[in-house]
Amino acid sequence: MLERARERDVADPLAHYRDRFDLPEGVIYLDGNSLGALPKATPARLEQVVREEWGRDLIRSWNTADWIGLPQRVGGKIAPLVGAQPHEVIVADSVSVNLFKLISAALAMQKNAGRKVILSEPGNFPTDLYMIQGLEKQGLATQRLADREAIAGALDEDVALLLLTHVHYKTGARYDMSALTKAAHDAGALVLWDLSHTGGAMPVALNECGADFAVGCGYKYLNGGPGAPAYAFVAQRHHADLQQPLSGWMGHARPFEFQDDYAPAPGVDRLLCGTAPILSVAALEVGVDLAAEIGVERLWAKSQALGEFLRECLAETDVDLDLVSPDDPDRRGSQLSFRHPDAYALCQALIARGVIGDFRAPDILRLGFAPAYLRFADMAETARHLAEVLASGEWKEPRFQERAAVT
Ligand SMILES: *Cc1c(COP(=O)(O)O)cnc(C)c1O
Fold it and tell me: What is the pLDDT of residues 299-326, one digit of tens each?
């Protein structure tokens, strides 16, 4: 197994990109889909922003270092990774807050049509549903949930917006963006895609699919660092009608005129609310530049190869785990999820061996493949560790049962 893996690593055109990340010795990191690894260039860039731009140049840096244009600049670099035009994407806030802004914007666009149902799926990432529920409490929206297979059938004349996560965080199941966007449009609904488990791991064609809105995460496959700001996409055809309720001063057309009345900035600039967290956006830019340099097509090809290779390695052991991710790599994201009644303890036992995956309640062991820094040898080693942990029963040790605040 390991020998074959090493041959694959030698032949891997992306192998050298591992050196661009600061990874600890002895760790196999299968959780880049939850917190991406640290690019080696990030500390130096942050040092420069802190010491030179902030420390030395002080407030002048808003102009001289173009801090004021940073959300647009980094958004513009994310755009080609998700099939958008540069002026359709901006970096701002968290995914949750951007969901609030864009769900609200969709509701405003659908108001005259009398539509206020937001359609999503049960088991979507919680924050996506919670944001709908928050608007529902305000009397502005009505939540409707339909299982994956029933989504298209649940689109009717009341649906204002279809809100789906392109790659499911738990199972890794991937929606057909093009088909569902078309089905929603045929029913008169708008579509908002959550790309948190997509952006930076695989190509996606927002404009080609006709998507209306999208949001995505900066701290997962884009390696922007803990709590990195998120991004938001609005198709150009909606820019003129775009209204969002968090009408903060940085989304004003002329913030430094300090007028009493709000006038929205053009296009996605009006999605800004308060002042951008410059240090965080600067760190995110390093991760985005690296993803762009490697190229999402190549990242995706390697991700699929890694996932399939891990399955081959597992098949050679006597590990018999229940795969909940789709069997077909073209129907899933950059992860493999397995169901096991003691998935939590199993995950902890693997972490003790240096194999960091994660657990998703109640019974999922999730292994994510960040293709920029993982090796085929890591897959072979993961299969070996998993087989040993299961065969020895070491996961039954009490120390692996205790749950920390973040699981
Ligand atoms: C990680 C993730 C988020 C993150 O939301 P934040 O508000 O940025 O913390 C949102 N949606 C999905 C599907 C995610 O996987």
Answer: 999 999 999 999 999 999 988 899 999 9
Q: Is the CB of 94 under 6 A from ligand 1?
A: yes
Q: Smallest Cα–Cα separation from 395: which of 358, 353, 338, 336? A: 353
What tokens appear for 137 in the block?
A: 């409490």
Cα(334) to centroid(ligand 1), Å: 16
> Is-contact 87 75, C-beta < 8 A?
no
C-alpha to C-alpha distance for 233 and 90, rounded to whole angstroms: 7
* 194 catalytically annotated: yes
Closest among 283, 277, 274 to 252, alpha carbons compared:
274
230 lines ligand 1 (CB under 6 A): yes
Ligand 1 site, residue 197, Cβ cutoff 6 A:
yes
Instruction: For the full predicted model, state whether its pTM sits above 0.85.
Output: yes
Instruction: Tell me the average pLDDT across 283-295.
Output: 98
Annotation marks residue 258 as catalytic: no
- Quick: pLDDT tens for 338-371: 999 999 999 999 999 999 999 999 999 999 999 9
Domains in the chain with CATH codes: 2-30+295-392 (3.90.1150.10), 44-293 (3.40.640.10)
Nearest Cα neighbor of 288 from 75, 99, 30 is 75
Burial annotation 61-79 (CB, 10 A radius, 16+ → b, else e): bbeebebbebbbbbbbbbb
Backbone CA torsion sign across 355, 37, 127, 180: negative
- Whether the Cβ atoms of residue 212 and residue 107 lie closer than 8 Å to each other: no
User: What are the residues facing 192 on neighbouring strands?
Assistant: 163, 213
User: Which of 125, 309, 369, 373 is an active site residue?
Assistant: 125
Name which residue sits closest to atom 6 of ligand 1, judged by CA. Answer: 95
* Cα 136 to ligand 1 centroid, rounded to whole Å: 20
Look at the block and give the residue holding tokens 């699929």.
Answer: 304
Torsion sign over Cα 51, 217, 360, 104: positive
**Cβ of 142 less than 6 Å from ligand 1:** no
Average pLDDT score, the chain: 97
